[in-house]
Specification:
Blueprint: H1 3-34, E1 35-39, E2 54-58, E3 72-76, E4 84-91, E5 96-100, E6 103-106, E7 127-131, E8 136-140, E9 158-159, E10 163-171, E11 177-178
Antiparallel strand pairs: 1-2, 2-10, 3-4, 3-10, 4-8, 5-6, 5-7, 8-9, 10-11
Length: about 180
């Protein structure tokens, strides 16, 4: 092999190496700044998100606006911040959440929360009232009878800074499904 050919091969290898390093850096930044890519291990969010579904959450969703009731979010579990959870926001900062006969009431409303995304009939339970502190949220799973959520956590509320992103869609192993239009 001539010196000229060796030089060209080195240039090609260097070019490929730069491209690969750049792609890895872009992917790392994207995954740590823009999205959360996670697998849901349990059935606590069924029927919307099933066990082993992978989800993508958008980290920048709450940069300019506050989380809203019924948003499905990825957050740091209040009892072990090393663990990520996926639940639905039910109670907003400053609200009082009460569960009577398995139905959810906000601020002593006479009408229960319209949570028609819950496919099962919740257990006939009475819990609360839960007074959601400012800057915090009350989370519940959609599979109410089989969800370890704010009703049973030691640290009941999720601080806004622990919400990592709003779930946009799920994919694999289920059929891809957009959960929100943002």
């Amino acid at each position: 092999m001539t010196d000229e050919v060796k030089s060209e091969v080195r240039k090609d290898i260097a070019s490929w190496a730069k491209t690969i390093v750049f792609a890895v850096l872009v992917a790392a930044v994207f995954n740590n700044v823009v999205i959360v890519n996670a697998t849901v291990p349990t059935g606590s969010m069924m029927d919307n998100i099933k066990p082993k579904d992978r989800i993508v959450a958008f980290r920048l969703s709450y940069l300019f606006k506050a989380p809203q009731r019924f948003d499905i979010v990825v957050f740091r579990f209040p009892d072990n911040r090393q663990v990520l959870y996926v639940k639905r926001i039910i109670g907003l900062p400053g609200e009082t959440v009460t569960i009577r006969g398995g139905k959810i009431y906000i601020n002593d409303s006479s009408e229960p929360l319209n949570d028609d995304f819950v496919k099962e009939t919740p257990r006939d339970e009475d819990l609360g009232p839960y007074e959601v502190p400012e800057g915090c949220y009350f989370m519940m799973g959609d599979n109410r009878n089989s969800s370890a959520d704010a009703r049973v956590w030691q640290n009941t509320y999720v601080v806004k800074s622990d919400i990592l992103g709003k779930v946009l869609f799920k994919y694999f192993p289920g059929v891809p499904k957009v959960l929100y239009n943002t």
